[in-house]
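Cross-posting from the modeling subforum.

Setting up a comparison between two proteins and wanted a second pair of eyes on the formatting. Protein 1 (sequence, then structure tokens):
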Amino acid sequence: MKRIILLLLFVTIFLNQKETHASEILKVKLKNYIGDKEELTIQVKGRYTTMNGIEVISEEVEHILTIKKGSILLTNQNEKMSFDDSFVLIPDVYDEEHVITVNNKKYLGAMEFMIEDGKYIRPINQIPIEDYLKGVVPFEVYPSWKLETLKAQALAARTYTMTHMDKDMDDTIQYQVYGGYEWFEQASKAVEETKGEIITFDNKPINAYYSASNGGVTENNKNVWGETARVYFPIKKDPYDPIQPWTLTLHKEQLFLKNIDASTLNWWDKLVEKDPSITESMKNRLKKQGYEGDIKILSISNLDISPDQNESNRAKKGSIKIEFLRRLIEGTILYEVVELNETAIDKIRPLIGGSSFKSYLIDSFEEHDRYYVIRGRGFGHGVGMSQWGASIMGDKGYTYRDIIDHYYPGTTIKKIDDIQKDEEKKGETSKSNEGNNGS
């Protein structure tokens, strides 16, 4: 109920802004740049009040947010306020003169702070979609790219947003990277010049998937997420994608047990794996799977990529075996093993990490005595628009409509307002026909 009230209050601020509607306001959790923090530093520029409109937060003053006994404590040199499990800061006016800074990153709009998992403070930004997109486009692609490419990205991002409004969206690559109020002129221009335009099929917005590079071959959504296959996500060669070849080398032995001397001071902290960028991803994934405590990867004693491929020549299955040590809070150290055999490849890639295991379009897999080598192409799932391919199309003089038509064939670009009008007309026609039938 509190969040509904917040949304209504925030909407009233926007109603005075030209051409702004309640349906255009988005909530986005801030995780990507904030991380999981038990303490946050905030500042406000312009007048901000809490949800009840009474408590005013001092401008240009550094405030510290902490958690104490299940409540959020806001303090500075002169003030101390305590809130239950969450509180909201709302600007008197929505404009660029009202800015809230969270851990040195700037945001427009309202900001809710809530306790997450009983120990972290999670900011949730509320902002109109068009301004949200100005903080997405330059962080999803390079803002120096051609305007037409940026427009295509704006359409894909806006359409994706419209079809994920009911999700608990955040600012990470799990949804779309959002950089807050760090705007770039060319990217903002792309958003403004395509305002309200989305990609549709049968008069409905599509799930406008996109990735960095498809490796020269697009992918169908069914192969990645098991959804109903969509005709506007065909498997075809992409002459514009720059291929993006990559090589992953992963050592079998990350730590040698025979070299570990548990009798020395701080021996655990001195253990450093051979491939720390990869093992860090493994640790994070293992923790998400319930392995609590501090983790050290001993070995990847088995890794295999099945030669079986789908229609786009992407890998389907693989195997992996990870051996690791886990130190609990009280100091107990456990030896653990996670093993996956002939499982879906999308269960293995997250363990290794998407920044290293860049795609499922694998050209070769080699096992050597001490390490594995995987070579592939592309970066990401390959469904929908290739961002690098769109960049090359922009360089060649193609318009954003050409780019959208190439990566989402059979779709139509429409204004959101026009779609709503069409639906209203259909409703009126349907009622009219029912009335005629009844007579």
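Protein 2 (same layout):
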Amino acid sequence: MSVFKASFNILKRNLNPFILTLAISIGISFAYSTSSSTPSENVELDKMTIAIFNEDKGSDSQGLTKYLKKTMHVVPLKKQQAAIDDAIFFEKVDYVLTIPKNFSEMIEQNKQPDLTTQTKPNSFNKAYVDSIINTYLTTFQFYREAFPEKSSQEIVQLTTDNVKTKGKIKFDSSFALIKANRSAGKVFSVLAYTMFASIFSLITLINLSFNKPEIKRRNSCSPISNRKFSRQQFLVGFLFSIVVWGVFVSFAKLFSNIRFDQHGIYFILNTFLLLLVALSFSVFISGLISNMDMVSGINNVFILGSAFISGIFVPTEILPDIVTKVAAFTPSYWYAKNCSLIGKTVHFDANFSADFQFNALILLVFALLFFLLAMVTRRDRGGLKISFAKTA
């Protein structure tokens, strides 16, 4: 009980790291939830924001450009690859189209022109805009074959009149479900930094406070043995970590609007696995360091750094393969992978179970590894020592 009271007083005087990471988690979660919210199952597609580089000056390419300006929101953009990449990454444009110089020539020969497009990887915008362009070109070719005596301007006018009819696309409930769950997956993935960093700061703060030389000498005079004291210290850290886990999960659930269905249960289970990893890692590191200044360094280098390379703050699609391979050696990668897996799943089948269990097993291996390392580093202190067999 005295260990709990002392730990509680220590934390009460050092709440700034916890409040900071909680504020970061709330801010990022709010941004993800508002940007990816889906209010209803009936979704109407807005005009896509696109940029067009027309290298062909023929009437055929001009007709396509005019049609896209009527159906899309066309914005100017510098024809530099760096500017294009930045515009796509920061979502200033959804789609970049380049019309080649031989566009009109290919159309005249009834051949399919080779259009260059750039979008985010696996983006729905590409499929949507591609379908509109293909519909226009298919209709254009049909009128050209049906009315060979008409001029290109007349064919363009016939094509535009035919395809300008507007319609509404309604998606079934699975689309809204997938979009909402992917948003929830992003919200929960942020905990790989915020919750991990909070638990690490909490555990190391308590352990380093008790490991001060004057405190250790005073505790050595108490009737509590070093082993019992160490176990009580670990239990206190575990209880406080459970409280931190509950706070962060509650906020994540609030901002993601996730329910206690299968998706919600899997998300919460995944965060509990992360809790075990964070707790064992914190106990291990706090047994190695002796200076509070090193805590912020580990937070920034390992916890925040692994969150970046694991695709939590930066999409893995734009990261080099070597970065992804390095990220696989961190627990944040497997936690984020499970968050993405849960978010994109509609039906929980055998394939989902196999993938989730594999990622969960990797997280448990990380937790066990850090815990065993903690036992080795603290063995000389009489703490956390486990005996598998009785000695004679």
